[in-house]
Amino acid sequence: MLCLFITSCNTSVEQTKTIDVSNIDELNQAIENCKAGDEIVLADGIWKDAKIEFKGKGTKQKPIVLRAQTPGKVFIEGESYLRLGGDYLEVRNLYFRNGYTPRNTVIDFRIDKKTFANHCKITHCVIEDFTQPDRDRTDHWVEFWGRHNELSNCYIAGKSNFGPTVMVMLKGNEHIKNYHQIVNNHFGPRPRKGGPHGETMQIGDSGTSMTPSHTHVANNFFERCNGEVEIISSKSNYNEFRNNVFFESEGSLVLRHGNYATIDGNVFIGNDNSEFIGGIRVINTGHWITNNYFYKLKGSIFRAPLAVMNGIPKSPQNRYNQVTDAVIAHNTYIDCKTPFHFGVGSNVSQKDVLPASEIRSAQPIRTTVANNLIFSSEGDAYPIKNYDRVDGVLFKNNMTNSENNGDVKPDGLMTKTFEVNNVSDLLYVPAKNHEDVFAGFDFETITTDLFGNKRASNNSIGAITLPLKKNPLLIDKSLYGTDWFSAEKPKYEAKTIKVAGVKALTEALKSANSGDILALQSGTYAIASSMVIDKRITITSQDKTNKATLEFSSSSPAFEMNPSANLVIEDVILNGNKSQDAFATLDKNMTKAYNLWIENSEISNFKNVLRVSKGSFADTVSVSNSIIKDCINGIQLNKETNDKGDYNAEFVYITNSEFNNVGNNVLNYYRGGYDESTIGGNLVLQHNTFTNCGKTDQDHILINNRGIVNVNFSNNTFKNNPVKLIAVLWGEKGQKPVDNTLVNSGKIEVVQNLKLKLMY
Amino acid sequence: MLCLFITSCNTSVEQTKTIDVSNIDELNQAIENCKAGDEIVLADGIWKDAKIEFKGKGTKQKPIVLRAQTPGKVFIEGESYLRLGGDYLEVRNLYFRNGYTPRNTVIDFRIDKKTFANHCKITHCVIEDFTQPDRDRTDHWVEFWGRHNELSNCYIAGKSNFGPTVMVMLKGNEHIKNYHQIVNNHFGPRPRKGGPHGETMQIGDSGTSMTPSHTHVANNFFERCNGEVEIISSKSNYNEFRNNVFFESEGSLVLRHGNYATIDGNVFIGNDNSEFIGGIRVINTGHWITNNYFYKLKGSIFRAPLAVMNGIPKSPQNRYNQVTDAVIAHNTYIDCKTPFHFGVGSNVSQKDVLPASEIRSAQPIRTTVANNLIFSSEGDAYPIKNYDRVDGVLFKNNMTNSENNGDVKPDGLMTKTFEVNNVSDLLYVPAKNHEDVFAGFDFETITTDLFGNKRASNNSIGAITLPLKKNPLLIDKSLYGTDWFSAEKPKYEAKTIKVAGVKALTEALKSANSGDILALQSGTYAIASSMVIDKRITITSQDKTNKATLEFSSSSPAFEMNPSANLVIEDVILNGNKSQDAFATLDKNMTKAYNLWIENSEISNFKNVLRVSKGSFADTVSVSNSIIKDCINGIQLNKETNDKGDYNAEFVYITNSEFNNVGNNVLNYYRGGYDESTIGGNLVLQHNTFTNCGKTDQDHILINNRGIVNVNFSNNTFKNNPVKLIAVLWGEKGQKPVDNTLVNSGKIEVVQNLKLKLMY
């Protein structure tokens, strides 16, 4: 027995030490000299332009630690980054903010092309709004190289620029079979980006679809990660996604390339919010999707709760392999609209505009869908939608409480009457176990349920078996993020500031807090310079029946939209002299998205109503109940012309408004590049009247919406507009004119298949 | 301590029994009733048309055995097959011969689409010449399904028809991660087939390139497996090829699809034989090729000792992925001509005739070639050949005893003076260890050498480290095949039979043994029916200065070439009446290849000199020092028109001969279907004279050799042939006319890039 106790003492006594550092030079020297077991402590305060290359050789028992003196009191700001190279290095409690990386990564698990990290860890750190000044510039916030590295208990939010937030690199034998751990993190909001390359996580790329990765993504909280259609893009083999929560995140967990992923025990919460909130999208071979819980998701097609795609026969490496040998079992769908979508992406009808190598005609085969539970409180007559045949899929013992009126009615999707109980917040569980489970090949490996309860004795259809543990929590927030940072900001009570005169207006605009309302006294305000908007501001009139008038005389924009601008113009009259723009973004460094809302207002005599720069992005541009007249150009969201699926605004609402004598480009809203999966651009054009517009329009099209995917075009009136075409709508995306009135104007054309430049 | 001994006795005593069966009904009943531990014994004798479905549930400790009463005395003949379904079944000592399967498999590790074998074993069995009557019909002799099955110590030879001999199927989760064992077998000769689908082993297909297979192929002896350019075609992931011997086999071990193969400790023996004998061809990602020994290989390009291919960027699934992350280390090349070929298949120059998705421009990247040893007794100034750039390959500490005059001279390919000793048959080993080895990433996992000696203490460049064990055997024949069957047939001493008169000739032909020579007395033999050739026969004249004349009068072929015919016509005059063919194959059921040699003979007045059927295949057709005249048609090897890379003859030699007044198709030798890797068809046309030929030729081309890859066209004379073209040669394959004389005939055209139908 004695030998058990001897070994642990049998090492020579080595000095390990704590080294306090308070500037970069001291830090560099400490790193230079560090040995296994050492702890380097960064002094509290702001570390500006900190370019940290943390190199060293720790051991499993004795890692080398680099940490903040006080958790959350060490701020990494300015042009900073952190790179790791070596073994068993650990970084704790740093706070990245007010800056961005001057290179391509904020935190990088390598120093250079030859020096990688292995068994290294970033934990309890925060990266917040550490985004590039230029949205078009690509970076990654955390880039994995090497093997056995860890990102844990971090809070990461606010990336607005191009590039996945977390990227796992697999290029080279040094990085495969990496078993990286990405666990217990809180991925806070990532704003909409407009186009692709806004993933919160990407593991590999299309060139690593054959590479064994074994990255482990577990117990993370993804909160409103809205960057693009893929929250996580898995592009390598054997990745595992377990017990993560996807909360109101506009996108899906997508098995884009690579095979044999495990998606087990995850929670997808839509809460009946945006139709952009999706679930799991399946491509490729051999995935197991089990024990997941989906709640109130409204997404469909690419964003369906379960989207199983059609593939391209003998697909090129970067396109869509056929789905084969997938197992989708024991998942629960509560109040999701049509949870099953099969053959998603089938596009045989488009063979005239697409090359053969783009036609997704290969249906899923050798795929088992079994023991899933679908519950709808109000009944959902279409639990399954198919875009192609589904004979290659074996449906067994799936249960729904609604009738199935869909096109396919597999025997294995049974309608049964059953109840669910609300057990805790967002958690609905059947009143009893439904034990008639199908035993598919290797199903005995599904040993537990969503909560880790053993299935052996109490198996049931769906993600959850009874009995439940006491007080089951669907989302246990104590698991995620750091032990020192709170993502919840104190709520600001907005105030209304009454303003009279230009000087007061200018000063109030400067001093107002974000959210405040500037209420103008009636009268005319002669304004000689730009009003800079860099926060949430409402400008309105005190007397809505006698609106204030702002007269602009300088040639700079009336309103200069800065990053994070959120401007509401309500009950105000804006008037220019045709030498300036009413609204314009900065020409560059539009770090973050802006919003513009015009309501019950009047805009006249401007050069452009809205002019934007290429890198700018509006989440929403809205004009309602307003009059726009006598402008040279209208709303121009057409500068992002890289033709790679990007665009300048996510939502454009123009409703109940009048456009008179806008000479050119009343609206030019553009998205270029064919990519079926990055669905983007939303235009609502309803109940407007356009008169005498388009006189100087070069392309003779009044409303340009080329490439925008979602368009509602209805109840407008067009009078005396001397153009050839009012608009060209995209039939394949379901666009059609509804109840418009055309008088002495061009016509509205519908093109079924729009020819776009292929992106790849 | 006691507990260790108790468990093994702790099972209830079950009766296991031996069941003797002597016919199919008894066998079926025995199978019906069999239990774990039972042994079913087939009575000695011939089992004709035996369709055996061996189903049962054995256990690891108690397999169910089906075996021959006496090893090698149970013959499975006629239309027979064996299928296995269940667990732990074992089949021993059966001999498949004189027949073929009426289905698609001879031995199948499944009964039907739902009943598979797991942990089942075929051992010490023989399958010999059990080939389909029709060469065009596809089957597999051993088809693997399920998991953990074994083919061991078998002798398998003589498959002539379409389809890999051994096929591992991976379609479905039941068959992945199969860990099948294919070990200690002797794969005897597989004849040339002419075109693709003649592999000796194939593991998966292009649709399973993402599937983990883990098939283990070890200690097998591949003897003259000449079926096609790929002896083994690996088309799935994680397969292992260890310690196999490839002996004078015309083809390569090809990593066609799938990734992460291990090729360790294999031996490739060319013995300076055919240029078709290759080594290892590399495509895809992550392979480790270590400790292999290559001896006197003359193959090049696709058949090079080491062929590392270029890939197609973003390749379609069934084409060529880029080579990435491969490790090629510690291999030894002894007297191989230019062992390293890189960028094989680069075809950028063909972009005018091929679609972009066929252009192999992606060079190997992130690939390490290190610690390899190249020795050439006579010096080889070109140890490496490159068809594209090789900057993506890291060469380190490779050693050659010759100067490198090649186009690329990587630092890591060093010229050093060193000696090798002949230690045993075919085995050459450096006189001392060359310890300056490169330590690449994960190279510490290469723990042993070709013979299993530890590298830790005595590492060396090349496949072998010193000291050697005593009496090292490169090829230990005791390891391979059954314990009861000898593949070596007693050698027959051919005899010469003197023949005078038609009757004697007819009778002698019937009674002769294969290999005999029929020597004809001078004079004229009037022959009224076909002479059927189904063995190796030489027909010659006793007096070479006064040759015998055979006069044919019937309209059936003068010589009917049956399967396995090997006919030598030497010093004989053949004369027809223009109503019959001189030589013709059977119209169908040409099970096996035939050979035809015409030497110092004269052939005149036939309808066709040679007419073949679609399914027929000649290994060699040779005409030398002979005269062919006054025939309507010449040699027609043009019936295989499936345009899938198949053709009717491997070698066609026409040398030192005269063709006079052959009206049409003097030679028509055809191969259709573009497939760069199944290199086929060989024509030597040298020192011939063609006069007054081609008068009735429809296509106005005298010599048709479309699609034939290797053509030597030199020193011929063409006089007064009224055709447009003498021939069209294929520039891209290096074909060109050399020293031909053209008088009043068409011209010879060289087309650089022949436009062929794509095969896939």
Describe this structure in words.
The structure is a homodimer of 760-residue chains. Chain A has 760 residues and is mainly β. Among the domains of chain A are: 259-390 and 401-488, no CATH class; 496-751, Pectate Lyase C-like, CATH 2.160.20. Helix content of chain A is 3%, strand content 38%. The first copy, chain A, contains three helices and 69 strands. In chain A, the strands form seven sheets. Chain A has a 14-stranded parallel sheet with strand order 1-2-5-8-12-15-18-21-24-27-30-33-36-39, covered by helices on one side. Chain A has a 14-stranded parallel sheet with strand order 3-6-9-13-16-19-22-25-28-31-34-37-40-41, with no helix packed on it. The first copy, chain A, is globular and about 75 Å long. Residues 1-12 of chain A have low confidence and may be disordered. The interface between A and B is medium-sized, with 34 and 34 residues.
Structural key phrases:
homodimer; 760 residues; mainly beta; Pectate Lyase C-like; 14-stranded parallel sheet; 69 strands; disordered N terminus
What are the SSEs and their pairings?
The structure is a homodimer of 760-residue chains.
Chain A: H1 3-6, E1 18-21, H2 24-33, E2 39-42, E3 45-48, E4 51-57, E5 64-68, E6 74-79, E7 81-87, E8 89-92, E9 95-100, E10 105-108, E11 117-118, E12 121-123, E13 126-128, E14 140-144, E15 150-152, E16 155-157, E17 166-168, E18 181-183, E19 186-187, E20 201-203, E21 216-218, E22 221-223, E23 230-235, E24 240-242, E25 245-247, E26 252-257, E27 262-264, E28 267-269, E29 280-282, E30 288-290, E31 293-295, E32 306-309, E33 327-329, E34 332-334, E35 340-344, E36 367-370, E37 373-375, E38 384-386, E39 393-396, E40 398-400, E41 413-415, E42 420-424, E43 427-430, E44 496-499, H3 502-511, E45 517-520, E46 524-527, E47 531-533, E48 536-541, E49 548-552, E50 559-561, E51 566-570, E52 572-575, E53 583-585, E54 594-599, E55 602-604, E56 608-611, E57 618-624, E58 627-637, E59 649-655, E60 658-669, E61 682-686, E62 689-691, E63 703-704, E64 710-714, E65 717-719, E66 725-730, E67 737-738, E68 741-743, E69 747-751
Parallel strand pairs in A: 1-2, 2-5, 3-6, 4-7, 5-8, 6-9, 7-10, 7-11, 8-12, 9-13, 10-14, 12-15, 13-16, 14-17, 15-18, 16-19, 17-20, 18-21, 19-22, 20-23, 21-24, 22-25, 23-26, 24-27, 25-28, 26-29, 27-30, 28-31, 29-32, 30-33, 31-34, 32-35, 33-36, 34-37, 35-38, 36-39, 37-40, 40-41, 44-45, 45-48, ...
Antiparallel strand pairs in A: 42-43
